Amino acid sequence: MRSLPANHVTDELLAAYAAGTLSEAESLIVATHSAFCPICRDAIAAFEAVGASLLDEIEPEALSAGSLESVMAKLDDLEDLPDNVVRHPSAKTAAAGSDQGFVLPEPLRSYVGGDLNDVVWRPVIRGLEEAELSVSGPEFNVRLIRVAAGAAMPQHSHHGSEYTLLLTGAYRDSSGRYARGDFQMADGDVDHQPTAEPGEPCVCLIVTDAPIKLTGPVGRLLNPFIRY
Question: pTM for this one?
Answer without folding.
Answer: 0.79
